Amino acid sequence: MIRFLKDWTLPLAMIIGGVFNGLFTSISVITPWLIFGMLLLTFTRLSPKELKFSKLHAILLSIQAIGCTVGALLYSTNPILSQAIILLFLTPTASAAAVITGMLGGSVSFLTSFILLSNLAIAFTAPILFTFFGENQDMNLVSSIWIICQKVVPLLTAPLLLAWGFRYLAPKLHNTVASFQWVSFYLWALALTIVTGKTINFMINQENQDIHTEILLASISLIACIIQFLLGRYMGARYDNTIAGGQSLGQKNTILAIWMAQTYLHPLVAIAPAAYVLWQNMINSYQLWLKRRK
Question: pTM of the prediction?
Answer without folding.
Answer: 0.87
